[in-house]
Specification:
alpha/beta, Rossmann fold, seven-stranded parallel beta sheet, 8 helices, binds nicotinamide-adenine-dinucleotide
Length: 263
């Protein structure tokens, strides 16, 4: 699955799943615009791609600011001459219930995870239309389809991403613009490392997450990137408005019972 002569915008492309997507698409021939607010990691990822013979550039962007995102997408359009696909991976995790979540935390999570995804789509859709179509891939989460305790704002944002994806899929189908959501289980990224670091025994968090997935392990970011690449590519030309779980079987098991070797 090659991306020669294709240009792709990746939000959150500096680290984690977005980084894996940027590296994979660039290795397959794409021009990649990495939009992220982490300047050092963004530059490092772009340089790594270029050193490996790929084509990428980094732009510092806070996805919650539409003008910021729009300028960066415009710039990518100028540099590449056209834009073919968008992968939205910028996101944050915070903890709280309906009782304990402060207003500013709700706003922060929704502004980045949901409003940020809308901003990126809103900015790129005119370019995709000009190209006669394209693909938008929103990285949501299994927490768009089920939930855990103490993650109110995150879960709401990830459920919302499915609505955003489906709305875009409907509104722009006749422009040949496809939009799909990807719902990963637990993935080994800096976000997970941060979440585990909040526990007195971070390794126990990794072990529990591994046991929770029927495949008996968590995902590597590359495994999520492979599915994002398929959805971003014309190979998935009849897939739109879809929700793809990439969760090692997590949502398939009854009752969420952890797997043991004894069963
Ligand atoms: N890691 C997991 O287990 C997991 C599971 C399911 C879904 N997800 C989702 O996948 C996406 C990527 O997660 P990850 O694990 O790679 O996270 P990560 O923290 O490792 O990487 C996220 C990237 O987004 C960037 N970012 C965050 N806020 C931003 C903002 N306001 N503007 C621009 N860039 C911003 C960060 O700088 C970072 O480069 C997120 O939306 C996350 O919710 C992750």
């Amino acid at each position: 699955m090659r991306f020669d002569d294709r240009s792709v915008v990746v939000t959150g492309g500096a680290l984690g799943i977005g980084q894996a997507v940027s590296e994979l698409l660039a290795a397959r021939g794409a021009y990649v615009a990495i939009l992220d607010w982490n300047e050092s990691a963004g530059n490092e990822t772009a340089e790594k791609i270029i050193t490996a013979g790929g084509r990428a550039f980094f732009q510092k962007v806070d996805v919650s600011d539409f003008e910021n995102v729009n300028r960066a997408v415009e710039n990518a359009g100028k540099v590449f001459g056209k834009l073919n696909a968008l992968v939205v991976s910028a996101g944050i995790q915070r903890y709280g219930t309906a009782e304990t979540t402060p207003e500013d935390q709700w706003n922060e999570v929704l502004d980045i995870n949901l409003r940020g995804a809308w901003h990126a789509s809103r900015a790129i859709i005119p370019y995709l239309k000009k190209q006669g179509g394209g693909s938008i891939v929103n990285v949501s989460s299994v927490q768009a389809l089920a939930s855990q305790q103490n993650v109110l704002a995150y879960t709401v944002s990830k459920h919302g991403l499915l609505g955003l994806t489906r709305s875009i899929a409907m509104d722009f189908a006749r422009d040949n613009i496809r939009a799909n959501a990807l719902c990963p289980g637990t993935v080994d990224t800096p976000m997970l490392k941060w979440a585990a670091s909040l526990d007195p025994d971070p390794q126990a968090v990794y072990d529990a997450c591994s046991r929770m997935h029927p495949l008996g392990r968590i995902a590597q970011a590359r495994e999520i990137a492979e599915v994002a690449a398929f959805l971003a590519h014309e190979s998935s030309s009849f897939v739109t408005g879809a929700v793809w779980t990439v969760d090692g079987g997590l949502l398939t098991q009854i009752g969420g019972v952890p797997q043991t070797d004894a069963v």
